[in-house]
Every structure is written in C-alpha cells, then in structure tokens.
Amino acid sequence: SIADLAGADERYRAAIERLDALHAAAPDDAGLTRELARVCTEYGLFLYRRAPDVDELIEPSLAHLRRAVGLLSSLVEGAPDDPKLVLLLCAARNNLSSALRRTGAVEESLEGYRANVEPLRTIAERFPETYRFRWELATAWNNIGVTLELVERGEEALDAFERSRGLLAELTVRFPGQVEIRSNLGTLLNNLAVRRIREGDFRGAEELTGAARAEAEEVVAVSPGNPQFVSLLRRARLLQAEVHAAFGRDDEALALLAAHRPEDSTRWETCTEAIGAIARTLDAAARAGRGDVPAERYAALAVELGRTALQLGFPYAEEFRSMRFLRPLRETETFAAFLDEVDGGDGAEDGEIDRGKDGGKGEGNDERDREEER
C-alpha cells in the first residue's frame, strides 16, 4: 500500500541519516562504511523499483546507487586483495549499471559492467578452486553483451557472449552439481541463439536452442518448482519455435507455442509473452525467405491466447493494434478481426509503440535482461 511504501521510505531515510552521522565521526571504520553502502544500495533499488510509476524517483535512486559504488570503491582501494570486498563492489556496479541501462544511459552502463572484468579476472586467477569468481566474471561478460545488443553493436556483443559461454562451459564440467551455473549457461545459449536468428543463421540457432533446452531440462528436473529454471525452459522452447518455422516445420512450431500457457490460469503475462513469440516466429519465417507460411494458423493461436489474456484481466488490449513487434500478426485477417472485436472496429494505426518483447507492462520475458538479476 502507499502507507507501507511511505513507511519504508521514512525508515530508509532515518537509517541513512543515522549512519551518516556515525560515519562522519568514524570515517575509517570499514564495517560502518560497508553498512552505509548496503543501506544506500537497498534504498536506491527501492526507489528504482518505484520509478516507473513516479518519474522523479529515478535521479535519487541513481544518486544512492552511485554513492554505494563510491563507498565500496574507497574500501577496495585500501584492500584490493580482499575478494569479498571486490564482489561487493562488483555487485554495486551491477545494480547501478542495470539502472543506468534501463534509463537509456548505455555508455555509462557499459563502463560499469566493464569495470568489473579486470578485478574479477584477477581474483578468479588467485582462487582457481572457487567457482564463484569465474561465475561472476561470466556474468559480467554476459551483461556487457546484453548492453551492446541494445545499441546494435552485434559483433562486440557476440564476442562478449562467447567469452561468457567459454567460462560457463568450463565451470559446468568442473562443478557439475551447481545447477545455477547450468541455468546461466542455458540463458547464455538463448542469448546467442537470438543473435543467430537476427543474423539469419538458423542452423546455428538450431544448435544453440537445442543445447539451451537441454541445460534447462536438466535444471528443471533437479528443481521443478524454481520459477527461474521454468522460465529458462519456456524461453528455449519459444526460440525453438522460431527456428522450426524458419525451416518450414510449422506443426512443431505451433505445438511449442501452444504449450506456452499460464499453468494456473491466473497470469495474463504468460499469454501476452506467447503472443509476442508468435509474432517473432512469423518474422523468423519471413526472414528465412518462406513464402508458404500458414500465417492464419499462427494468428488463430494468438487470438485464442489474446482472449485468455483478456479473461485474466489484461488491461492494455487497445494497444495490441499499435505494438510495433505485433505487426506480422496484424497483417493477418484472423488477428485483424480480433482487434476490431476488441476495440470496436476503430482500427486506425496511429503511431506505433514499443511495449517490449513481452507484449505488456508486466514482467519482461527477455532472458538477457534478467541474467544480471542473480
């Protein structure tokens, strides 16, 4: 509730004010500095999560996240060989870089992610038997790749993804029982598959999506109730649908897309995610040069999912017509008729908007965006 949010805001402010006074009296107290950095990080993230609804919160959020990075940087300067401090600083940079990236400050975001590479590489070399450091280094490279993709620097992104893949592949061999590492490898393989699909390399994408699905099925088998693992498997299947459509295997593609439904019939986000995947599948088929795509079959499934989303309370139905990534579906008679039904036939396509890859304002479905949220 608003009262709860206001109460939390006041508690964070009071905690920072108290810690500031203590820190001013004992600026060399490392434990106090770490605690102040921790609270600044928590408050910065608290404000950032509210920022989409309250725009003026984004600058205070970034200010607190930057302060946390500054506090931890001062500690690392005094103890550069302390791996725990290095990890804390890298995590703080990740938080700041993630927030910056989502506000459009891509270059500053990249600087933060890249600043993590060398210290992580150094401690990974010093402690070769501790998988955590190589794992974090792999994550740093993946985050760099994700950010480069946003500004369409594909070759640089591919290089970063491949560096991450090499580290994760090595770790899965050395530490086969660490399912989180396998999950990250599956995510990375999905990222690479997206890059191959965009390049029109569907053979390469087929190999990658198959490998990603295999990793995902293994981790889901170990922990079937883990939502991160289940999401990874669903993402791999949706990418496989794109590849199947590119090669003319429409029955297989439609089966994978139809299986992507809300298990408990309570989440419209799952339906809109699948609708977005259907549109991308049609786009992949077109990119592969197919002239025989049964687009109306795909559109019929999208309409079925759209009706389910509406029944589950999807509140943005009028925007189906203007979401840019749904254009391949809007060009079909079946989906166009559904849109007329939804908005009463007021079918003018005024300026298109981009809601992201999930087709709504709910959770995103881009695994590349979620990789850093470990």
Protein model, in words:
- The protein is mostly helical and 374 residues long.
- The chain is 73% helix and 0% strand.
- The chain contains 17 helices and no strands.
- Helix 6 runs antiparallel to helix 7 and helix 14 runs parallel beside helix 16.
- The chain is globular, with a radius of gyration of 23 Å.
- The two termini are 27 Å apart.
- The C terminus is likely disordered.
Radius of gyration: 23 Å
Total strands: 0
Order of helices and strands: HHHHHHHHHHHHHHHHH
Biggest pleated sheet: none
Strand content: under 5%
Mean pLDDT figure: 86
Shape: globular
Number of H- or I-type helical stretches: 17
Distance between the termini: 27 Å
Q: Which percent range fits the helix content?
A: over 70%
The poorly predicted ranges are 347-374
Secondary structure category: mainly alpha
Question: Main attributes?
Answer:
single chain; 374 residues; mainly alpha; 17 helices
Structure at a glance:
The protein has helices at 2-25, 30-50, 58-78, 83-102, 106-115, 117-126, 131-150, 154-174, 179-199, 202-222, 227-246, 250-258, 268-287, 295-311, 327-330, 333-343, 367-370. By secondary structure, it is mainly α.
